[in-house]
Amino acid sequence: MTVTLHPETLADEPGVSLRLAQHRAARLTHVEYALTLVVPGDRAALISGRLVARFTLDVPGVVIFDFAPTAGEVRATRVNGEQASPQVSGEHIVVAETLTRAGNNEVEFDFTTDGSALNRQSDFLYSLLVPARARRVFPCFDQPDLKAHFQLSLDIPAQWQAVSNTPVEADASWDGRRQLRFAPTEPLPTYLFAFVAGVLHVDQGQRRGRTFRIWHREDDLDLVTANRETILDLHDSALAWLESYTGIAYPFRQFDVVLVPSFQFSGMEHPGAILYNASRLLLRPSASGHEHLTRASLIAHETAHMWFGDLVTMRWFDDVWIKEVFANFVAEKVVADLYPNQNHELRFYLANYSSAYAVDRTGGSHPIRQHLANLSEAGQLYGPIIYLKAPIVFRQLEHVLGEERFRDGVRRFLAAHRFGNADWDDLQGALAGADDGDLRRRSAAWLDEPGRPRVEIAVEVDAAAGVAAITSETSDPARTGRFWPQRIAVALGYPDRIEHVVMELDAARVTTAHTGERPAYVLGGGRGLGYGYFPLDESSRAWLLGHAAEIPDPLTRAVAWMSLWEELLEGDIDARHWCEAALRALEFEDDEQNIERLLSILARAFWLFLPSPAREAVAPAVEACLRSRLSNARVATERATWFGALRQVVTTPDGCAWLERVWARNEAVEGLSLGEVDETTLALELAVRSVPRWGDVLERQRRRIRDSERRDRFEFIAPAAAGDAAVRTAAFERFADPALRTREEWVLRAMHYLNHPLRQSHARQFIRPGLDLLPDIQRTGDIFFPARWADAMLAGHASPVAAAIVDQFLVDRVDLAPRLRNAVVAAADLLFRVSRGPD
Q: Is 638 within 8 Å of 289 (Cβ atoms)?
């Protein structure tokens, strides 16, 4: 039986459905938008707008626009020059078939909209339209495969400035207002169209004949000056590398950078106007080496998006991982060239594996590629699996294909789909050419299945013959019969050397021969090659707990500590023994990247896996180790790492008193310059520890803060750290109001303090209402907010009572969207493990 699709019914579906998107993409071409927005000075007033949409239709037919502002309306419609009544259907505007014609069409809307999707403040606003939030600002076809030329005109208060994807081509002012018209854009999807307007400072510089502008709201101009040249250099170097790698010159007309205070993402790749969280680029003298490398990676990531995502865009958001994997994968290569003295194999391993495993080991994991029926759910596709697991998978593909063949495939892909759209099938074809059977087999296992394999390594040695048989047994932890083909390295550790044996796991059981005697330890995934859970044998576990610090190679040490952490999570190592081993290792660890990662997981073990008596017993040793290494650190970036870790784990009266003296400026940290942001964090950490006079500490810190934006942020967060339980309860209860959740970075920081391990007894009352808010948070927030909310809610809890609350929520809320359920299960994984042991 054939079912006839009536286009009008598609308008009844909320959001932007795949059915609607496919219907439009099959019929519409050559889309152009001329958008005018009049922004009043009063942030509470509606914004008025006019949109002229031009497009080509294959035949006359119903045309459905997306428009769903939180507040606002369509006031008038004209179609091909004729007045028409607005036909609003739910979140859409329907243009009747009788009004359209084959060929060129023009539809004009007069409308009003609120600023909810424009992150509006009293004297500043910025658009952030990913994945399908353009429809909350103006009528449009809000899907990635209907790219359009945009021409934006802004009418703003006279004292404001504005930046968009393209240069300003007309600028006029009169009667307290300013009118700007920007040049038409290259073809862009709606989610990459962007503008920022408000009271802004602008700085600029030249590199290789290209002008870069840096827009910001930072009051500390010395801070901008201290970072300016590095920001310009990093962007210029990333552009030069990418032009060489892709064989395509930078494809857009301008390159502006906008530094947004408390931006909800680290960065967003709008072509011509990249938005960054200001604190990620404006580093302070106390920044750690990790922060410097992270800034370089972030800049390389967003710059890579100019080709991967902007020049060539996925057809639908189920392939959003393609642009993100390329951005991260290529960023690692860029940073490796920029910082040749860093251990970049180690950096790739530390940056990707741990966080990918943190989701993939849980019941909340999901495939890299996911079916997406509606863009209203697209935000939940984002996370460590596509950002961090996918680059690991691409590294495997590059190993199989070879670097040159892989790069040539990337160039073919970009050239073939320039300013257009493409999907995974297009990319596979470009990478592998005609001989792609093995690539497709490998990619299907890794991209279309959740989770990770269990890979057990056994070594049997024939001492007389001097030969070892190394056997790999791969199994599916979920017992569904899945198999993940991959190439791994096995590290065989000896007192004087490390030998690596590469194995091709093309079957569940693989054996290879290796000349040599019995090793002291065996590590699966050596050299960072291989993805999965590699359980340690008993003798390797014992040796590594006592001697991991003696391993000469930094990357192998990192793999060893990752394996030991996995053993802790599986319940095969006692948390007290693990912490004591980590402290011994930290006495000798000299690689700054390893120091940062070991300190990070030590903090999690300290707060979550040690019961209070054990934590109190080990705390003096933890603080003594960190204070000693802080005093003896070689460089300022390393001192910053030790100080940041110490600030995070201090619990003893002596330690808290020392931190308070540092905060009060009565004692200095030798060789480390602490600024306003550092002291603000110290004040909050002291308050959450309920030091005597915690209220005075918070008030004095509030008065110290000179920057108005940072003062507002502190006043928002401080109640969550207060020593008064009633104040904290009120701080949580305000989050039921979506209007008080708009500054997402502030909200998440407040949630961190509300649910700090020292406050978990009081904070258990927040868990159920906080989890019940998740659907509303998904509806009103940006793409990362729901998962980060769940993480901030649960990360500080370790009790069986808290675990039972989460369990009951999952039982009760059978209506919870699957992706939100996955976010909760993943966020609760450590809570479940520590409160009731591994499954």
A: yes
Query: In this predicted structure, what is the pLDDT of residue 838?
Result: 52
Tokens of 241: 């590398």
Residue type, 443: S
Name the 3-class secondary structure at 669.
coil
Q: Which residues lie across from 513 on neighbouring strands?
A: 469
The torsion of the CA quartet 619, 623, 626, 627, rounded to 10 degrees, works out to -170
Please state whether beta strands 88-89 and 92-95 pair in parallel, antiparallel, or not at all (unpaired).
antiparallel
CA 171 → CA 35, 161, 168, distances in Å? 16, 10, 7
Instruction: Collect all residues with Cβ–Cβ distance below 8 Å to 150 and sequence separation of at least 6.
Output: 32, 33, 35, 165, 184, 185, 188, 193
Average pLDDT, the chain: 95
Given pLDDT bands bounded at 50, 70 and 90, which one contains residue 1?
very low
132 DSSP 8-state letter: T
Q: Read off the pLDDT of each residue in 563-576 and give the average, rounded to a whole number.
A: 97
Per-residue tokens: 386: 């596509």
- Are 12 and 89 in contact, with CB atoms under 8 Å apart? yes
Q: Which two tokens stand for residue 726?
A: 């009633």
pLDDT above 90 coverage of the chain, percent: 91
Cα–Cα distance between 797 and 834 in angstroms, integer? 9
Q: What's the average model confidence in pLDDT over 261-270?
A: 97
Residue written as token pair 């901030």: 792
Closest by CA to 226, choosing from 267, 285, 300, is 285
pLDDT value at position 468? 86
- As a whole number of angstroms, the distance between CA 393 and CA 399 comes to 10
Residues carrying an active site annotation? 302
Cis peptide before 719 (omega within 30 of 0): no
Calpha distance 613→105 (Å, rounded):
73
Q: Which helix (H) or strand (E) holds 74?
A: strand 72-79
Greatest CA separation for the chain:
95
**Inter-CA distances, 121 with 115, 152, 398, 409, Å:** 9, 21, 46, 45
The SS3 call for residue 574 is coil
In 3-state terms, what secondary structure has residue 237?
A: helix
Residue 32, phi then psi, degrees to nearest 5? -135, 145
Residue with tokens 């999807």: 189
295 with 235: CB under 8 angstroms? no
**What's the CA gap between 194 and 171, in Å, rounded?**
18
Would you call 306 helix, strand, or coil by DSSP? coil
Which helix (H) or strand (E) segment holds residue 349: the answer is: helix 344-360
Condensed to tens digits (0 to 9), the pLDDT of residues 59-110 reads: 999 999 999 999 999 999 999 999 999 899 999 999 999 999 999 999 999 9
Collapsed DSSP state (helix, strand, coil) of residue 643: helix
Radius of gyration of the chain (CA): 28
- Strand 88-89 relative to strand 454-462, pairing: unpaired
Closest by CA position to 43, among listed 116, 113, 122: 122
338-357: average pLDDT: 94
In 306-343, which residue ranges form alpha helices assigned H by DSSP?
320-338
For the question of whether the overall pTM of this predicted structure is more than 0.85, the answer is yes
Q: Note whether 764 and 805 are within 8 A (CB).
A: yes
- For residue 301, give both structure tokens: 């990531």
